[in-house]
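User: I'm preparing a small set of examples for a lab meeting where we compare how different chains pack in three dimensions. I only have the primary sequence for this one, and I'd like the structure in token form so I can line it up with the others. Please keep the answer compact; I'll paste it straight into my notes.
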Amino acid sequence: MSRIGKLPIEISKDVKLNFDDSILSVQGPMGTLSRRIMPSVTLNMTESCITVTCNSTDTSARAAHGLTRTLINNMVTGVTKGFQKGLEINGVGYRAEIKGKELVLSLGYSHQIMFDIPDGISIEVEKMTKLLVKGFDKELVGQTAAKIRSFRPPEPYKGKGIKYADETILRKAGKTGKK
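Assistant: Understood. Below is the structure token output for the 179-residue chain.
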């Protein structure tokens, strides 16, 4: 039995759940999320918590047990508190700004990169080198941050590029001087 899967999910008063035809909808103050629940797990819902139980001892069913519990917990947390991911831009002349519904990045290329901000995501720019990606869907927040980072991943010699705020760049030694 999964250690994570057997933990109950606490539900606050302002969250509404609807489980209909193997689709779970979670509605809260920040928005609404829905997800199809795998048939190998069963949801036991009460007023204050949800527990996920595994239907069989099959390997794939046991794997889905903890995954389903984590996905539901992320949905409940997202519609109540939301998620955020920080990005830092390092490099001379590298900067970011918001123009309408687009993020404009200057990353040392011959052109600026225009990134359309997806629905349900808000991006804050602090001091033109720090970005904060916010939203209520954890997958979408992570995917958006990864897409922005992919425009100029950090390089190992000088650390120039876009990195996560909590990421540590392993630096390499450069060339040694002539003797």
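A couple of notes for your slides: The longest strand covers residues 83-90. The mean pLDDT is 90.

User: Perfect, thanks.
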